[in-house]
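User: Need the bound-state model for GCB:
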Amino acid sequence: MLYPISTDSRVVMDLNGVWKFMIDNEVDVNQPLPTGESMAVPASFNDQAVSAEIRQHCGYVWYEKEFTVAKALFNERLVLRFGSATHEAWVYVNGKFVVHHKGGFTPFEAEINEFLVSGANRLTIRVSNLLDHTTLPVGNYSEKKDENGKIIRKVDENFDFFNYAGLHRPVKIYSTPLNYIDDIVIVPNVDLAAKKADVQVSVKTGGHFDEVRVTILDEQGNTVAQATGTEINAAIENVHLWQPLNAYLYTAKVEGLKNGEVEDVYQEQFGARKVEVKNGKFLINGESFYFKGFGKHEDTFVHGRGLDEAYNVHDIKLMKTMGANSFRTSHYPYSEEMMRLCDQEGIVVIDETPAVGLFASFTFDLSILEKGGEIEDGTWTKLRTTEAHQQVIRELIDRDKNHACVVMWSIANEPASYSKGSYEYFAPLFALARELDPQKRPCTFVNIMLATPKVDKCTDLVDVIALNRYYGWYVQTGDLKTAEEKTRQELLEWQEMYPDKPIMYTEYGADTVAGFHSAFGEPFSEEYQEDYYRMNSKVFDEIPNFVGEQLWNFADFQTKYGIMRVQGNKKGIFTRAREPKMVVRYLSKRWNEIPNLGYKK
Ligand code: GCB
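Assistant: Bound-state model below.
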């Protein structure tokens, strides 16, 4: 799916701003929304209104905005597009139903010409933030009736982040001519030895063109190749590679022509780079890459999970200052704007689906593993997420397939991969992702602490072993010596079992209250956080196939209420306001000394 941009043939109208808002179930969509409440878009609704009722609301909310389309555009194809609506949306224009979409982190769109009138139009959206055992993320849903018979809904999140919701990403109307470029697929096959890239470009069109022309431009705007057709191959000689932290982007300018005239034009940027997994190494452009970075969240004050481009730019600057080179979009696809920024900044991204909470019972109690026999916690009979999972893999790959920054897909975070039925659940999903990705990137899922080498059933499916481990925090709390032994022992075990698969940490961390210090290095102190990271770094450097450290978490973030959380999760190495905790100095030094390429040859 193409990102909406304005070109010589396309206009983009932004519907961001202040909308009308209300929480309720019953609304007559033929009438203006009966509310005086304001809500900014894009953003979560939760923290904007100073109201516990709105913040904690579970169920349906309504948004409405008036807009006018200039007469000059009425003969064009007009598409209403949502960057995301979390988690499910029903869209009406002038009271008429236009489109429905389920899944809170991927874009959707619909042509709206037939619904429009000249003058003011009314755009009304019903959004649900409900999650259950069929959705991703997974929620535990329940409902009851109050004394007046009103249904009270409740979602108990099966995951550790606040269930922010609403219109999180930009709402736009864009125009195209009636004959239009619908999608572009770019596969740059890089021949490193010949310093050449063979770029395959496939163009999908709507309507009809006499000819499609593809021009490849370099960063200076010089034409480096040109061809005609909807399936073309363009050779780039002396190719300029897209490298981690040293991005270079080519542009594929695609033109649809009729009677010798260009009717539609779209420009898609791409990077020429080669990603491979070989002999226990993760190679980018033929050199072993070492991941240094983070698990993150889209999470900021007041905006909640809403797009905040200033924070995106700031976060990437902070990462770069620290010598980091990568992050994982834990635990859902991030905004398209962030993905475009990462392409541009040379930040390497592990792109994750919203498949989080795929376990029936959560525990860090490793003793259940000692019981022996096959583990069956009921996850794969209780959850019915297959359909949602297939849909989101399709939508994510469709959206992000051309991004140079994306080097690997993460199919899920911490599923019950130790439990009976997990392999049968995941094998077809991995096959689907591999089939759909035109660039055939590596795939992984992020392994939960319980799923040790002895009990995990799904590691055969992955290209890279991605581990979330909390030795020294959730287990061996405060005992870094034993934690170090456990860390080393487990990593060596993985390496021995799968000598050809690279291993990385996608999470490790310790809750740390900024400003809390301890002469004894007690847990929760800034000293303990630093000691914890030093211990882990030491072990990482001993393991030849260990190819990356992405810590948990970039910044403190909001979660649901719980006795383990004080105003959210405090594992950030930055506070939620992006103030550094003490450990940032240590990690900056370490990461600035570790080269991005060729650290472990
Ligand atoms: C995990 C989860 C992450 C949590 C983290 C924690 O394993 O993947 O969502 O926030 O642990 O801090 O407990």
